[in-house]
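Data availability (excerpt). The following record was deposited with the supplementary files.
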Amino acid sequence: MSTMKQRNQQTGSALVYSTEAGGRMCPDCGEPVAQCRCKELKARVPATDGIVRVSHETKGRKGKGVTVIKGVALNAEALTALGKQLKTACGSGGTVKDGVIEIQGDHRETVIAALVKQGHTVKRAGG
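Predicted structure:
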């Protein structure tokens, strides 16, 4: 099956249904839906060193600054909820993508205070 998945990546197409494999195929892993383990893998907490790093970045954002929070050891759903809490505390917008929380503007002190209050070990990264 892995050979089939590689071939799909090369051509840009994906297998949707297979009579041999028993029906519908998972779009993420390429396995039959009955054998798919994508939800298990997404639910796992990423391995971190236990320190949450808070920094301010402008790179790739046309000069607009964002507060970036990395290293939070939570699953995707809990990370989204934490992102919402922090955005509310800062009174600003933002996003959660790829295990990183981004909040629009420079809110490092507010974010650090909120995370310490929740019991996280926090370091201020960058300048």
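Summary of structural features: The helical segments are 2-11, 38-43, 76-90, 108-117.
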